[in-house]
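Researcher: Please predict.
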Amino acid sequence: MWPLQRYFERQERRYLEMMWPKVGEIVDLDLEHGNQRGKSYAPNTPLFDSPEDDSA
């Protein structure tokens, strides 16, 4: 998903924010939480916490 790649590589959220309502689920299998591996993100568990202005 191109908006997700752009978010991680360039910290640009605008495209991901536009597509987020259409996302079913994103699973980050590389993320580790103590003894757990992986984390799921969905519209009710957002990828980012608060809105930012990334128009530089």
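Model: The beta strands are 26-33, 36-41.
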